[in-house]
Amino acid sequence: MTVLGRSRPREWETIWNTLTEMECLFSADPEGTGLSSALSNALHLLRAQFTRADAGQPAVWYNLGFNPELLWALGGVNPFCVSEAAALSSIGGDQADTEAFIDLAEAHGYSSDCCSADKAGIGALLKGLYPDPACLVGISTPCDSQVAVVQAMAEQRNRAPLFVIDVPPYDDERTFRHVAAQLRQLIPFLEQHTGCKMEWDKLRQVCETTNRTSEYLWQWMEWRSAVPTMQPSKLAAFTMVLMITFSGSSWGMEMARALAEDARRKVESGVRYFEEKVRAIWYQDPVWWDIQIYDWMEGELGLVVPIDIFGYYASEGWIDTSDEESLLYGLARRMVNCHPMSRQFRGTMKHYIEDFLVLHRQFHADCGIMAGHIACKHSWGGIGLFKEACKKADIPLLVFEFDMFDPRILTPKELQFELKRFVQDIVLPRKERAARR
Amino acid sequence: MSPAPVPDQTPPKGLARELLAELGAAIEAPKPEGAIRSGRPVVGYFCSYLPAELLLAAGLYPLRLRGLSVEDSSSGDAYLSHLTCSFARHVTAAVLDGVYDFLAGQIAVNCCDHLRRANDVLVAKSRLAYHGYLSVPRGFRADLFSWYLEELARLQDSLEDHFQVKITEAALQAAISQTNQVRGRMQKLDELCRGEQPKLSGADLLTAAVAARVLLPAEFVEKADALIAAAEKAEPLSGIRSRVILMGGELDDPGYVRTLESQGAHVAGDLLCFGRRGLGLPVDPSGPALAALARAYLYQVPCARMMGEFPRRYQAMVKLFQECGAKGIIFTRIKFCQIWANEVHNLRHRFESNPLPMLVLEREYGTISTGQIKTRVQAFLERLERAEG
Question: What is the ipTM for the molecules in this complex?
Answer without folding.
Answer: 0.95
